[in-house]
Amino acid sequence: MTGFTEGSELSDIFDSNLPTEETLPSDLRHITDQQLRVLGMSRLAYLRTGVEDGESVITIHAADGTPMAVADDEESAMDAILEHEMIPTMLQ
Asked: How many CB atoms lie within 10 A of CB 45?
């Protein structure tokens, strides 16, 4: 079973999706639809249960559904999200 490890691709995905000052207008009243869609996207993450090698695992996904990491349990997954300064989001 694969667990979350420091330095895994979660950090890479998180860092690569950060909006820069260049992508956001100085006045948010003039934000484009595309800028609004990605605003905060790199900071949100949610959990899903899954199966890997016949065992139950928790997968961590970016707000757009991109899988980022696999953890052995929900507590480890939440710790990983918070450790990377992301915001855990509940799905309904």
From this structure: 25
